[in-house]
């Protein structure tokens, strides 16, 4: 059985807008420079798709890899 996909951040593409931490409160937080830290990548599909869609830098993506 495969694991469900997890939401990841492309650190190169991310520009530190912080919207992901607002949309995924409790799962993502911002570090001292305003860049996301993923505390829990297991995000519901609808909630994750919303964050992927609204990320200004298009830095969020789904990954099947651990």
Q: How does the SSE layout of this entry go?
A:
Blueprint: E1 6-9, H1 19-23, E2 28-30, E3 36-38, H2 45-54, E4 60-63
Antiparallel strand pairs: 1-4, 2-3
Task: Give a verbal description of the structure.
- There is one protein chain.
- This protein has 66 residues and is α+β, with helices and mostly antiparallel strands.
- The protein has a single domain (6-63), classed as Alpha-Beta Plaits.
- It has helices spanning 19-23, 45-54; strands at 6-9, 28-30, 36-38, 60-63.
- Strands 1-4 form a two-stranded antiparallel ribbon. A two-stranded antiparallel ribbon has the order 2-3.
- The two termini are 13 Å apart.
Short structural summary:
This protein is of the alpha+beta class and 66 residues long.
């Amino acid at each position: 059985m495969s694991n469900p996909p997890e939401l990841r951040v492309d650190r190169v593409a991310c520009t530190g807008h912080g919207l992901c931490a607002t949309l995924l409160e409790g799962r993502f937080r911002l570090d001292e420079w305003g860049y996301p830290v993923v505390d829990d990548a297991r995000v519901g599909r609808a909630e994750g798709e919303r964050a992927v869609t609204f990320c200004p830098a298009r830095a969020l993506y789904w990954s099947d890899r651990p």
